[in-house]
Specification:
The protein has 385 residues and is an alpha+beta fold. The chain is built from three helices and 22 strands. The strands form four sheets. Strands 1, 2, 17, 18, 21 and 22 form a six-stranded mixed β-sheet that branches. The protein has a six-stranded antiparallel β-barrel with strand order 3-12-15-14-13-16.
Length: 385
């Protein structure tokens, strides 16, 4: 309210309009202009070349984590996965065959080869004795020796085969390697098959859609843009002179410039540790627990942060305070019809009003700082209307 000052002589006294100190409620706030910041947008793109079979979401739709949004033609990838699955089954069957038949057969072959080698060795010994007695010729001894050598070689080969079939053997390693390769090929085929189904990476809302059923898409082409569900924040630059008034957890009342009649609440969650020297400001962020549906990314908002609140305190208009910047504020108070200079101790500041902690009592009349009134001057007062 503007201060009306009327000064004129009234029986030698100056008549002035004054404000009266009153007790009441006062709210101190930091007001700023900021912007809405929503969680980072996610671009959903194709990873394979394929034809679009179906698009199951529209712009503005809410989605949940894992929900199918776009289905590509997966005929080729299903066939590849089936082929890889068959190759794995074949490799695993070979491994089972080695475990169940290969080793037992190799063990039997070693036993048989050992028996043959021992028999050939004994036969060589008998032929040698008979040749020494003149019953057999040396040619028969050569045949017996050759038979013994062949049998021993077969025995050694059987033992090598058995060793190869053991878990750490070369044959077992080859079979195991084939199984691992088949499993890896199946994993690749199944991964490519999943590329044909584009799902929501998390809960959120579809912002843009640039694909239709029947389109041919290439790897890297962005089909949808999704805003993930998360905390909506307000960001603002606060003049550094108000830094002392800010604290984490303070509540604020905000409104979007596009919807000035709609208000929503927020809370201070971040105060930058450093001041921006270029702008002389400090960045703050406020969390919006329940953002209204109309809030959009980068929307301009007005923010009113409640920094202090008094339910019953002594309040005077801000325009009666003099020399606030000096650190020794004072007021011109009218007592018994005489203007007196009175030092005061100030508290919080609200919209055009200031809390008085000491120096003035409720009901006292105060002259505006713009009033050129000398101390000791006799005056007649009229209250502001």
């Amino acid at each position: 309210m503007a201060l009306l000052v009327a000064g004129y002589s009234f029986w030698g006294k100056e008549r002035i309009v004054v404000a009266v100190a009153e007790r009441g409620e006062l709210r101190q706030a930091v007001v700023a202009s900021g912007r809405v910041r929503t969680p980072q947008r996610i671009e959903v793109a194709a990873q394979i070349s394929a034809r679009v079979v179906a698009v199951k979401v529209r712009e503005g739709d809410a989605v949940t984590a894992g929900q199918t949004m776009v289905q590509l033609d997966d005929t080729e990838w299903r066939a590849s996965a089936a082929q890889a699955r068959a190759s794995l089954a074949q490799a695993e069957a070979k491994q089972r065959q080695l475990d169940r038949l290969g080793r037992p057969v190799a063990e039997q072959s070693v036993q048989q080869a050992e028996a043959n080698a021992q028999q050939a060795k004994r036969q060589l010994e008998r032929v040698g004795e008979l040749v020494a007695k003149g019953f057999y010729s040396t040619a028969q001894l050569d045949d017996a020796r050759r038979n013994a050598q062949v049998a021993d070689s077969q025995w050694q080969a059987a033992k090598l085969q058995l060793t190869s079939n053991q878990p750490g053997g070369s044959e077992a390693q080859v079979v195991r390697s084939n199984v691992e390769q088949a499993r890896a090929a199946l994993a690749v085929a199944e991964a490519r098959l999943t590329y044909a189904t584009l799902t929501a990476p998390g809960a959120g809302r579809v912002l843009t859609r640039s694909v239709e059923a029947g389109d041919m898409v290439q790897p890297g082409k962005v089909l949808l843009t999704v805003a993930p569900k998360g905390d909506t924040e307000l960001t603002a630059q606060i003049d550094e002179k108000n830094l002392a008034l800010l604290q984490l957890g303070q509540t604020a009342l905000a409104s979007a410039d596009a919807y000035p009649g709609e208000n929503f609440t927020a809370a201070v969650t971040y105060i930058a540790p450093a001041v921006d020297a270029q702008r002389g400001s400090v960045e703050i962020r406020l969390r919006v627990a329940e953002p209204p549906a109309y809030l959009k990314h980068e929307m301009t908002v007005s923010i009113d942060i409640a920094s202090a609140h008094r339910t019953d305190t002594l309040i005077v208009p801000a325009d009666v305070i003099r020399d606030q910047a000096s650190g020794q504020p004072w007021v011109m108070v009218v007592r018994d019809g005489v203007a007196q200079r009175q030092p005061v101790k100030l508290g919080i500041r609200g919209a055009g009003r200031v809390e008085i902690l000491d120096g003035v009592v409720a009901g006292e009349a105060l002259a505006a700082a713009s009033q050129n009134l000398a101390e000791g001057r006799k005056v007649v007062t009229a209250n502001r209307k």
